[in-house]
Amino acid sequence: MTESTNTQQPQADVNGTKQDESKSEQADLPIDGPVDPSVFGEDAQESEDDGIFSINIESLTGSTFKLQIAKADSAIEIKQLLAECVETCYITSYELTVDGVKLDDYSEISDYEGIVPDAVIKMHSTLYDDKAARMHVHRTRDLLESNIEELYLSITTFEKEAKEPVPSYPSIGDAPGEPHVDLAAALNCDTEFQFGTGTEKKNKSSNKKKKGDEKQKQSSINIIESTHSEQDTRHLFPADSFSLKSMDTYLQCTTGRPLPKCVNDISMSGWNPPTGGRKLRGDLFYLQIETLEGKQHQVTATPSGFFINSTRNQQQFIPTPMGGGKQYNSQTLLGLLWEISPLFRQEFPKLLSARVKKNPFQVTPVPFPVKKWFDLPPKQVYRHSYTTEQEQRQNRDPMHHEWNEEYQSCKELASGTIEEKIIRDRTLFKIHCDFVDAATFGAKAVVDGQLLPVNPIDPQPNQVYIHNNIFYSFADDNYKKPKEEQTKSQSPLSSIKSTPTSNARPGAEGMPPIDQHAYKNSENDMRGVIAFNGADVRGVHTLTSAIVDYRGRRVIAQSIIPGILQGDQGSKHVYGSIDEGVTFSHDDKYQELIKQVCDKLHLKKHQVKDKEGAPHAIYCPGETKGIVGSDGRFYVLDLVRITPKDVNFLDQHTAIYRPELIKSYVQHLRSKDSSIDASQISFNPDAFSTFELADDEESIQKDQQAVRDVGEYLMGVVIPNFIKEVKSQELTLLDGVSLVSVLHEKGINVRYVGEICKIAAKENVQHLVDLCEREMMVRACQREFNKMLREISNHQFAHSIEHFLNALFNNYHHQQDKRASSSSHVMHITQEYLVEAMIQHSAAQYKHQLTQERIHRILPMMGTLRAFCLRVGLQIVAKDYQFATNTALINVNDILGLEPVVKHSAPQSSSAQGLLEVGRQQLLMAHMESAFDLLSQAIVMLQQVKGPMNVQVANCFSYLATILFHANDIPQAILHHYKSLIINKRVLGIDSAASCQVHQLLGMMCHNVGQSEFGLKHFLRARYLLELICGFDHPDMATIVTNISMMYQDLGDHAMSVKFLQQALRINESVLGAEHFQTGQTHHALAITYSLDREFRLAVDHERKAHKIFRLHFGDKDQRMVDSAQWLQHLTLSAVQQQHLLNQEDKSAMQTIKNLNDLIKKGALSQQESEMVQKEILQKMPQEILDMLGNDNNKQPQSSTQQTQEKKKKKKKQNK
Q1: Contacts of 1147 (CB under 8 A, 6+ apart)
Q2: pLDDT average, residue stretch 185-208
Q3: Which of 99, 811, 933, 985 could join 40 via S-S bond, C-beta 3.0 to 4.6 A?
Q4: What value, to the nearest 5°, has the Cα angle with vertex 779 and ends 775 and 783?
Q5: Which regions are flagged for Polar residues bias (predicted)?
Q6: Distance CA 698, CA 270 (A)
Q7: What is the DSSP pairing of strand 874-877 with strand 374-375?
């Protein structure tokens, strides 16, 4: 066994208790020569300074091994680490002691004086109860049956191995040793290449002994050998074609090869439950186990462990231990299997070895799993026993959470020091992850009809549900119901009110009910919760919440305010209005708390009138309300408008500015006048709202003008700057996800994509226009799709989805298939109907006029199908889909399922985010040492708070890879990029835009160190993903195929190099224009490539075009223009010389043939000898001369005899 703390396989605990990887990297980083560790600050010093140290664990197997812990860890976190160690992964019922003192599960390590570096902590077995025994069985089944990416195990560092076997606790054999990290190992770390080519690539360098010093290791960079089959990438990502079917191999290699099977079945026995008498004797439950040998055993679970009873058939139950010979019993179920099954003893170590060989990041749990929109068809597996998902969840976590109490208690934790901030942020994040998981499960149960509503007599859209202490309600648009049934609030408060609320606010006659905007208001409320949480004012509490879109329904999941279900007796309304402005409540204590939050959010104090006309001073919008729960905490609800109304879209009821825009505008004002204090800049959230303001007219006009100024700043500065960055390719946008993410970061709402299209079209940024119009189309189709699903029965889903997709993409409809069209809600869906819906929706929502021509150009593309599936949560089979008119695109067997799409208010770590942002800025300024220091601290803090599976950690790894590359540590640079790639795939999806960009970075890095065959593989994969995401016509595609051309050129395949450069030229001319400077660069690259093949005429033509384009953009004095002129002169001279040489060789060859013919006439040379000499001469001639001699298709010139015969034939034809 070897150490687990190495740079290639870091500890990847989702709770962040072990993160020593970056520290080892800091110590080894060579930046511009030797580096003093002191320049990196305290984080580069000994780990004890950070509260991280090593202890020894004396396990129940008899072995002792090392474990790294932090002072802030608790015993429960040590147990989590032991569950990930190979040696102790199967042990669940035990306690920990140090010097005879038992460790409390939730006490910090620092509370025990005996726990110091190298202290010994002992494991002691404890008795099972029913819950603990069931959890032990569940853990054992996880080890034996779960997929390889669902369970993480780490290598153990033995201080002392077990000398003799310990009953019940078998010691597992040696795990693989630590691999030697050199360039060959780094290049071969991506097993997908090996799996895709069908070749298991062996690490030749890692099997050799380490010889010499570091210089000798670096000398091996340029001599890595690889076989032809290893370089062949056609099996996985073909260079000449695109096929979604190619993802089959990719999906298989991401899933991994089948794990060794250790047991046939472990299930609950039919003899359950134990009788009353057997319970008094200690029987907890009974299991039925079938080993690989085919033998069945009935096992009894008791507080002391498991034993095989004497039952042998289904007629008679014999509870006593099996008699005769050895009695099999063990404290662990795995120990019992180890005793009774020789094949289990043989296969289980192989299983653990296969799990350990995986990169930790490939098996570390993801906080918010991302479902693939395409997958392999699932295989239906017969199971001897079946447990529902609800039962499985109860086995894993049998307790019901008090979500609100857990969440609010964590928010009240101290946060004065960095350590306290990390503990608080980590605990908040962990609780939020658990809440989102439970909320998603509950929302699915609500939509599937598995839960009973609290108010069953109300109309279905008004029904609310409570499950696992989570409150569920619907937020669907387009639902028409009688006016007397309309309600406004989606919060738990509305469900307990005895009288219905008013449908209109004062001064808003005829205003539509809020239910018509519930879908969008739910997102605005989520945004308000995130903003209030970011302000982080003690004493102000929000509800943890999640939005779940599933099967056409939007479900809001919230924690429950204590006492709110008991009405006024349990909770008290102390701020704002709960009746839509009829009355207002006020309390100076809570008004001061609200003021602290609103000062940070730039919200202005203003006055509104109630129904009687009395003024009330408030900070928040009129509909925001404050409630004091029975726990004494102050909760703020209905944060649907924490920013002012958007003056550019006043016709849209829910249109408000984004908080990022307000922040950007404040910075913009301060950049113009540094004397302005940010706290003095505030906005009235009720300006242009339906609430009647009580301020004087001058103040109202001033407030409205301030809001207009924000809109002018957005239209005149933010959007044009965004388009300028996209046009200059400072921003790379590949799909709708990346587009929406960047827009939101810049404070631009998605409804502005119509305005962006207009400006982008004028600026000739066609790929941005395509991307924005595709996003409009997909959102319009999502609206119609959800409406269809809400109006049909569950048994019609599959055929209705098939009908919808075929109508949308291929205008195809099964005329004789009545299964989908049996519902009137599906029959009307045709391509014409959907196209008209897109046009109307884009005009109303985005103020953009889509045309049928544009729609039919963007629709039949894989990127559009992908975007739609991701948007609605649809999962389909990975196969080739033919986009053609009047043919079926998909059938019901291609539909794998509908998955929920979840939005939530994940807590952020401001400290870690600040370190990441400053480190990135330092990297942009080329301050490598300070950048490395800050990014290393950021990656440690992020992993401690959120674990390694998040986008910010992936970005840190990419930034660190850049620094390591500049420091000439190539193997570590490639490994860091590979870690970033794994994280992006698991967090964002295997076909995400971020994964495509990391593949490009890896390809360039491999190319720069002379490994073009590996670089080619990464670029081919990037090309495949980009074509899948957004199609072929994109500026990034031109960059990728240009780089692929360079790879082929380095590998000596000039024909493929020219082919890809011609593709790049076509893309640049189509997307950017014939006179764009990148088009000129492609012409220049083609000229160089043609010159390598001595095609100087073609080279001169392309270089002349490049020269003209460069002059247009840069002028005559630019260095690029000078270089192009020199190349043009050189190529022209080469072309002239080549032509002159061809002319000379042509004359010489013709004279030689003439002399041979003269010798034949004189009889000095026979005809046969003359033809042989001519043939030898012609074979040695260059192809250019043969072409000039008039020989098409590489044919040789005719001999004199052949010429005479041809003349005779021509004369005969003329005579005839």
Answers
A1: none
A2: 45
A3: 933
A4: 170
A5: 1-17, 488-504
A6: 81
A7: parallel
The widest CA-to-CA distance across the chain, in whole angstroms, is: 130
pLDDT at 118: 87
Query: Residue 742 contacts by C-beta under 8 Å, 6 or more apart in sequence?
Result: 722, 731, 733
Give helix 797-810 / helix 862-872 axis angle, nearest 10°: 150
Q: What is the DSSP string of 588-636?
A: HHHHHHHHHHHHHHTBPPEEEE-TT--EEEESS-TT-EEEE-TTS-EEE
Q: What are the tens digits of pLDDT across the range 326-345? A: 667 888 999 899 889 999 98
State both tokens at 754: 């119509």
Partners of residue 470 on adjacent β-strands:
467, 559
Q: Residue 1093 and residue 714: Cα distance in Å, rounded? A: 53
Using left for φ > 0, alpha for ψ between -120 and 50, and beta otherwise, residue 74 falls in beta
Q: Are strands 572-576 and 606-609 parallel, antiparallel or unpaired?
A: unpaired
Cα separation values, 189 from 217, 509, 974, 976, Å? 18, 66, 9, 11
Beta bridge partners of 57: 65, 121
Q: Which token pair is 1188? A: 């000039």
696: tokens are: 């004087």
In order of 11, 70, 84, the CA distances from 57 in angstroms are 17, 15, 14
- Rounded Cα gap, residues 177 and 457, in angstroms: 65
Task: Please count the residues of the chain.
Answer: 1216
pLDDT of residue 566: 73
Residues contacting residue 315 through CB under 8 Å, at least 6 positions apart: none
- More confident: 192 or 698: 698
- The residue behind tokens 């490639």 is 974
The single-letter code of the amino acid at 688 is F
Q: What is the DSSP letter of 42?
A: G
**pLDDT tier at 485, thresholds 50, 70, 90:** very low
Report the alpha-carbon distance of residue 297 to residue 288 in Å, rounded: 6
Distance CA 884, CA 1212 (A): 57
Please give the Cα distance from 550 to 873 (Å, whole number).
8
117 Cβ neighbours under 8 A, 6+ residues apart: 48, 53, 54, 55
What is the Cα–Cα distance from 230 to 201, expressed in whole angstroms? 7
- Tell me which DSSP letter residue 564 carries: G
For residue 677, pLDDT over 90 is answered with no
Q: Are 666 and 645 in contact (CB under 8 A)?
A: no
Count of C-beta atoms within a 10 Å radius of residue 417:
9
Q: Say what the pTM is.
A: 0.81
Tokens representing residue 672 in the block: 């113009």
User: Tokens 């701020």 — which residue?
Assistant: 575
- pLDDT of 1171-1204, one tens digit each? 676 666 655 555 554 554 444 333 444 444 455 5
- Give, rounded to a whole angstrom, the gap between the first and last alpha carbons of the chain: 96
Helix H, strand E, coil C: the string for 344-359 is HHHHHHHHHHHHHHCC
pLDDT tens digit string along 621-664? Answer: 988 999 999 989 999 999 999 999 999 999 888 999 999 999 99
Please give the Cα distance from 1068 to 385 (Å, whole number). Answer: 59
Query: Sorting pLDDT into bands at 50, 70 and 90, what band is 108?
Result: confident
pLDDT digits (tens, 9 = 90+) for 262-297: 898 888 888 989 999 999 999 999 999 999 998 999
Which contacts of 655-658 are long-range, i.e. CB under 8 A and separated by 24 or more positions?
655/749, 655/751, 656/524, 657/710, 657/711, 657/714, 657/747, 657/749, 658/527, 658/744, 658/747, 658/748, 658/749
Amino acid residing at 292: L
| Structure token digits, residue 535 | 């302000």
Rounded Cα gap, residues 764 and 142, in angstroms: 55
Q: Is the pLDDT of residue 847 over 80?
A: yes
Of 72, 71, 93, the closest CA to residue 82 belongs to 93
